[in-house]
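Deliverable D4.2, example record:
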Amino acid sequence: MIVLIGAEKGGTGKTTLATNFAAMRAQEGHEVLLLDTDSQGSATYWSRIRDDKGIKPAIYCAQKFGRVDQEVSKLAGKFDDIIIDAGGRDSEELRSSMLVAHKAYVPVQPSQFDVWTLSPMAQMVSKAKILNPDLKVYIILNRASPNPSVSEAAEAQEILADLEELELSKALVRDRIAFRKAARDGLSVSEMTPPDPKAVAEITELYKEVFHAG
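Output generated by the structure prediction step:
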């Protein structure tokens, strides 16, 4: 499966999702390519930390820029899954990845500023579906407040549910320090000792939606 994690806005936690997916998929015995198309190279840096520490399972990570769709198509036969981490902006990498992805997840923080970025994203998706009609695109509310008294996530869910071309994920990932600690050490949250059960439960719910749902 080719899964794209991308957004027009930076700081939404897309690399956190991509790296956790890659590690969790590899833990299930799949051959995974983590494709870093973001010039910041955060996914590549995470992979290097993992390699330097000898963390298993090993995850192959590569950087590609520009029109990546043809390269992804060539690599698809060599891996069980390709997870694409696209930069937080409207880029050639993001647009071309949509042409070959089976699923795309657009992480947004539950704030009005992030929600406003989704209208151009919906237009981008509409154009991509002309050439890739089977593309499924989901919005994932990410980095939501862990405080149960904060209602911004529920309010954002009501707004996002009405957007065309974009389906709202049932999962919700909150802003937990475990995700930052795991990234620092080249891990997924499920590999941490001791694990944060809430962080693990949230990312596992989303992981199952991405890879084990239709």
